[in-house]
Amino acid sequence: MPQLLEVVCRTTKMGFAAIARVTDHRWVTCATHDLISFGLKPGDELDVETTICHEVHQGREAVVINNVAKDAGYCDHHTPKMYGFQSYISVPLYRKNGEFFGTLCAIDPKPKEIDTPEIATMFRLYAELISFHLDAVEKIKISEDSLKEEKKIARLRDQFIAILGHDLKNPIATMRMSADILLKMSKEDFTLRNAALIKSTSYRMQALIENILDFARGQMGEGIILEKERHNKSLEEMIKQVIKEIRVISPERKITFNSKLEHEVNCDKNRIGQLLSNLLGNAHEHGSSETQIKVEAKTNSDYFELRVVNSGEKIPDEDLTHLFQPFYSESGSSNKKGLGLGLFIASEIAKAHQGELKVTSSDRETAFVLQIPRE
């Protein structure tokens, strides 16, 4: 705006130009270009009734005066006498919605030939430009305020999720320990069945909490954190432990495991276990209960590969491209269970290992395949 007002002064030969916010009760300077030491700076105010801009506001028409002394309408006007100018121009400014904003005005203590078609056209064009600028600034301000509020809400939400997940870990661990004690000490079938149910539920809750925490960390920029070490037999034992946990939850479900881990793998075995747990939970939930779930783990000179295969209905092609997105549920699923984070977290664990998690599905079987570099 200061550059635009400088052009106004150069073009009209006027000594002072300003953009003013004008209402029924206030006249406030927004921007100025002052060559005559008029003294107004942005933020300064004048008594609105002492200005001709007040009349522009009321009449919504531009006022142009070449020479106050020779102008019949303004030669005795109080404003030129009060502020000491002889030439004057003021045009109304409007927002894009039609609301009156203020004026673009210029003054000089000497008479100037400004009541011409060229200057009138120039001021109208400048008024349109200022109107466009006001609209753009307002939209940016609204967007920035909205973005700040959204970021604040998102930050609070993620902090709440992280704190909630952390505080739930201890009672879940206590619940599982108590269930283990009952399973070892009790001989009553009713107690044993319920203790087993409590224990299986604790595993399910733990998996949900881990997924929520990982999602929250990802939203807050941390991503999946890995603690890599070289594993061979310990990785195989981790896979067996996850399968055992799933069997606790669903003792009726048959799960087979075939291992060909002939090389060491540089990975975070606990994260691989979490990935497998999510895949097995998905296979149990959506696969056919009458068929077995097959787990295969193998290595070659370059890669570690983990496969989870189950039978059941084919996953529709339109769902395959969205399957690893957070909070996504298959279009054919009428009874959604869980948060829809399991496969998303599994794919993020694969990416953190510089690997990939893929899925294929046919009428015969659905297979999830993890492949990560050994080194």
TrEMBL record:
Coiled coil: none
Keywords of the record: Kinase, Phosphoprotein, Transferase
Keyword Transferase on entry: yes
Keyword match Nucleotide-binding: no
E.C. numbers: 2.7.13.3
GO MF, any single term: kinase activity
One Pfam short name: HATPase_c
Recorded catalytic activity of this chain's protein: ATP + protein L-histidine = ADP + protein N-phospho-L-histidine
Listed Gene3D superfamilies: 1.10.287.130, 3.30.450.40, Histidine kinase-like ATPase, C-terminal domain
Catalytic class of the enzyme: transferase
Identification of the protein by name: histidine kinase
Organism: Salinimicrobium tongyeongense
